[in-house]
Write a structure and sequence with these properties.
This protein is mostly helical and 330 residues long. Helices cover 71% and strands 4% of the residues. The protein has twelve helices and four strands, in the order E-E-H-H-H-H-H-E-E-H-H-H-H-H-H-H. It has helices spanning 27-48, 55-62, 65-97, 101-116, 119-127, 151-154, 157-183, 186-194, 199-229, 241-252, 255-284, 297-329; strands at 11-12, 18-19, 135-139, 146-150. The strands form two sheets. Strands 1-2 form a two-stranded antiparallel ribbon. A hairpin with a 5-residue loop joins strand 1 (11-12) and strand 2. Helix 5 (119-127) crosses helix 7 and helix 8 (186-194) packs antiparallel against helix 9. It is flat and about 105 Å long.
């Protein structure tokens, strides 16, 4: 739609013929754009045609078995860490919104701690947990019944990466889930509580399904960030993409070539995740009344009751208008 200060009607001359309007030529824009394009082309050519980069070795290792196994591990850790973070984030968000001050304080402390410490520190801590607890024991209190594991055998690089990334991600997911819960209309919760639901039933049946519409799109952003954060697993040797690439270039000294291989795979995974995120935003980003899994039986009953009340109120209002009209006619 044209702006209010733009003329849409053509100019007419003295003889009545229309005078064409010549568009303004933005020479400066084309000059700046051309210079930027030239700089980009120079930068790409400086990398692509660099004699110090052996592209044949890049192509050789791009689909190497060890690289492909690292890609699979990277995807697996990202998915597991996201699931752990999302589930624990929902629990933390409910705890923080709880009327119980102890639960709210504990959730706030968890979020503050894991958001305040670097992910790298957390990964190293979990990987070296054996220095603090040599054995992990699960035992019935005041009895000898239980099992015990060697921490060094349990806390492998994969396990440390999954726990470190998942627990850290939960702190960020908790704020996202809390924002999604608070965005749901309070009137629906009040109607559910007035209808006899408990607070947990209201949260599980009414609030959380609707909050998913707001929670799920940011989850794509966190997953994309998680894909790239998995490169930190190299410090705990988690057999991910970056770990396997570093192990290869430590043997053959092809540092730049293997870093390019890892970067290409990260960009491909990010592109796929970005596409899936756009589908999620298209699916859940629309302002629709329909919930993720469709209305439950309780929600349908609440809507029917609310609709019947509206109809009853409208009927009474019409009846009052008719009575007032009759009295005025009399």
């Amino acid at each position: 739609m044209p702006h209010s200060d733009q003329r849409v009607a053509p100019f007419t001359g003295a003889d009545g013929r229309s005078i064409p309007i010549a568009p303004r030529r933005h020479v400066g824009r084309w000059v700046v754009g051309g210079l930027a394009l030239l700089f980009f082309a120079w930068l790409v050519s400086a990398v692509v045609f660099n004699d110090n980069i052996r592209w044949n070795r890049v192509a050789e290792y791009l689909f190497a078995p060890k690289i492909l196994s690292g890609v699979v591990v990277t995807i697996g850790i990202s998915l597991l860490a996201t699931v752990i973070g999302l589930v624990l984030g929902v629990v933390l968000a409910v705890m923080r919104l709880s009327k119980n001050p102890v639960l709210g304080w504990l959730a706030t402390l968890y979020i503050w701690f894991f958001r305040g410490t670097p992910v790298l520190v957390q990964l190293i801590f979990w990987y070296n947990l054996a220095f603090l607890f040599p054995y992990l024991t699960l035992q019935v209190p005041f009895t000898e019944i239980g099992v015990r594991w060697d921490t060094n055998q349990v806390m492998t690089g994969f396990t440390a990466a999954m726990l470190g990334l998942g627990l850290n991600l939960a702190a960020y997911f908790a704020e996202t889930v809390r924002a999604g819960i608070q965005a749901v209309d309070r009137g629906q919760s009040e109607a559910a509580l007035a209808g006899g639901m408990t607070s947990m039933q209201n949260m599980r049946i009414i609030v959380l399904p609707q909050a998913l519409r707001i929670i799920i799109p940011p989850t794509g952003n966190e997953f994309i960030s998680m894909l790239k954060t998995t490169s930190l697993i190299v410090v705990v040797a988690g057999n991910d993409l970056m770990t396997n690439a570093s192990q290869i270039y430590k043997q053959n000294n092809l540092i730049i070539e293997l870093l390019i291989v890892a970067s290409l795979w990260y960009m491909l995974l990010t592109a796929i995740a970005t596409y899936l995120q756009s589908r999620l935003e298209r699916r859940f980003g629309v302002d629709a009344v329909r919930l993720v899994r469709g209305p439950t039986w309780t929600q349908s009953m609440l809507r029917r009751v609310s609709g019947n009340r509206d109809v009853t109120t409208a009927t009474r209002a019409m009846a009052e208008v008719r009575e007032n009209t009759k009295e005025e006619v009399r």
